[in-house]
Please model this.
Amino acid sequence: MFNLILFGPPGSGKGTQSANVVSTYQLQHISTGDLLRDEVGRQTPLGVEAKRYMDQGLLVPDEVVIGMISSKIDESPEARGFIFDGFPRTRAQAEALDKLLEFKETEIHLVISLIVPEQELTRRLIGRGATSGRSDDTEEVIVKRIKEYYAKTEPVSDYYNAHSKLERVKGDGNIEETFRLITKEIDKYLLPV
Ligand code: ADP
Model:
C-alpha cells in the first residue's frame, strides 16, 4: 500500500493534481472538501453543521472530519493506496490519521507540499469563483480561508517534516509542469499503472 497526502493552501491546485495522480497511479482519492460538499448538497445533519463553518471560511470541527475519513477508508479495503486531498488540516487530524492507518498496519509514506505565492492563490480562487458555484469562493471568504490555512494547517507540515516525509514542490507553474514535479517524487515509491 502507498499513502500520499497532497498538502497546500486553498488554490494551490490540490484538486486538479489529485485527479492526475489518481488516473496515473490508481490511488483511491479522499477529498474532505468534496465529501463535505456532498453532505451539504444532501442536507444531512453533518452537512447542515459543516456548512455553517465552510461559508465563513473556517475549518469544520476535527471530530466531524475524522469520523468521515474513517468510514471512507473502510469503504475501500482493496485500495492500492490513498491520496488525501485537503486532509489533514490540523495537528489533531494528522495524529488521528496516523492512528487510523496504524490500525490498518499501514502509514503515510509521502507528503507533497505545493508551494504557491499568496498573491497567485487569491488570483486563482477569485477566477474559479466566477464558475465554481461554490458559496465559499467569494473574495471575503477566500481571504478567511487563506488566513485559516496559515494559522492552523501550515504548521501540520512541520509534523511531517519531523518524520522526514515532507517534499516541497513548486506549484505556481502550469498544470503539466507541476504534475511532472509531483510524479518525480511519487516515482521514488510507486510506479504508474
Ligand atoms: P480549499 O482547499 O480550496 O479551501 P476544500 O474543498 O478543501 O477547498 O475545503 C473547503 C472547505 O471545507 C474548507 O474551507 C473547510 O471549511 C472545509 N474543510 C475541508 N476539509 C477540511 C478538513 N480536513 N478539516 C476541516 N475543514 C475542512
Remarks:
- The domain at 2-27+79-186 is CATH 3.40.50.300 (Rossmann fold).
- The first strand starts at residue 4 and ends at 7.
